[in-house]
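Priority: medium. Attachment 1 of 2:
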């Protein structure tokens, strides 16, 4: 039948994890978990010249597989009888490229932080000090007092934003300890519930913890900051109130033959959702859609999770809420890292 595999050499079996018996007579695009038209645009019988493309699929064990594929027509006696596919596993190369982009991104952030610390913070400190002195000497009429208070308040706010950014760009070394993430989350929930109540909105918080301990090597203080930022971000997305569901779980993942357990903490709200155009921007420093705020909350979440060797999955539909899932390996030093699942700020072109 058209498009069905009849031959699958040992190299193909090693790359995909399938044996010939498992793929024989199956459509080739089904084996690679692709839709045929996505990459061909034409039926296989009408392919008259070699067609090259790169696509992402899945190995037999479900792990990610990036292939560079060339499909060529197979002719016998001047009649096309099928296709010959030659492919190369590009997964490791693409992951190495991702790591290089990450290093370049962090280097750029480091340069920005050095400029902020010296070129902005120092003059800002002098400016704020001068305004404090001027406030004492100016006539104490209502207009002067109001304007001077605004200037000092805004200078203080700017200094606070710089402090937040420097903490993002140059975070302290992780103080890693093995602990139960259910317990770390529970320690933060009291603060989260109090914040929800203080906003005087009808915000319901429900929790769905994993039944057994979720042991991982993490910096508890920094992870509490992650939970706090994700919760307050959810509250901001529900100005008229709503429901925040926080759940924990674990799953086994694998890539390039390496597998390991990942602990997941999900924050799902019933708020405004994320616009499709904003998906690749939400973890950028200073990006915000709010009237107030520095735009560093989610950036800090991504930074801390990245330092732990993890990633953040994002799913949302505008007007129907958002689901952000923190994925952490059992150990920050090991375990597979699924770059493709996360929303990485350095992926933007």
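Attachment 2 of 2:
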């Amino acid at each position: 039948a058209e498009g069905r595999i009849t031959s699958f050499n040992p190299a193909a079996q090693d790359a995909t994890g399938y044996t010939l018996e498992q793929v024989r007579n199956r459509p080739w695009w089904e084996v690679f978990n692709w839709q045929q038209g996505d990459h061909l645009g034409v039926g296989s019988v009408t392919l008259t010249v070699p067609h090259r493309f790169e696509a992402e699929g899945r190995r037999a064990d479900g792990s990610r597989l990036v292939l560079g594929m060339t499909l060529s027509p197979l002719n016998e006696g001047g009649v096309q009888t099928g296709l010959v596919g030659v492919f190369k596993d590009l997964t490791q190369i693409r992951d190495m490229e991702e790591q290089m982009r990450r290093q370049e991104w962090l280097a750029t952030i480091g340069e920005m932080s050095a400029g902020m610390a010296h070129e902005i913070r120092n003059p800002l400190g002098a400016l704020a000090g001068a305004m404090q002195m001027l406030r004492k000497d100016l006539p104490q009429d209502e207009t002067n007092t109001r304007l001077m208070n605004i200037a000092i308040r805004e200078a203080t706010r700017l200094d606070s934003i710089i402090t937040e950014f420097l903490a993002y760009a140059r975070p302290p070394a992780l103080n890693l300890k093995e602990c139960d993430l259910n317990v770390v989350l529970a320690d933060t929930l009291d603060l989260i519930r109090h914040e929800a109540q203080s906003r005087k909105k009808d915000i319901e918080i429900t929790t769905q913890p994993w039944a057994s301990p979720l042991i991982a090597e993490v910096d508890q203080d920094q992870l509490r900051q992650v939970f706090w930022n994700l919760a307050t971000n959810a509250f901001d997305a529900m100005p008229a109130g709503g429901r925040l569901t926080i759940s924990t779980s674990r799953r086994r993942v694998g890539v390039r033959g390496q597998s390991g357990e990942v602990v997941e903490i999900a924050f799902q709200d019933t708020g405004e959702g994320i616009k499709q155009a904003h998906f690749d921007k939400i973890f950028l420093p200073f990006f915000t859609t709010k009237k107030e705020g520095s735009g560093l909350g989610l950036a800090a979440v991504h930074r801390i999770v990245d330092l732990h060797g993890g990633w953040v999955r994002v799913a949302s539909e505008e007007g129907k809420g958002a689901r952000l899932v923190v994925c952490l390996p059992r150990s920050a030093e090991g375990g597979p890292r699924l770059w493709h699942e996360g929303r990485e700020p350095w992926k933007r072109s």
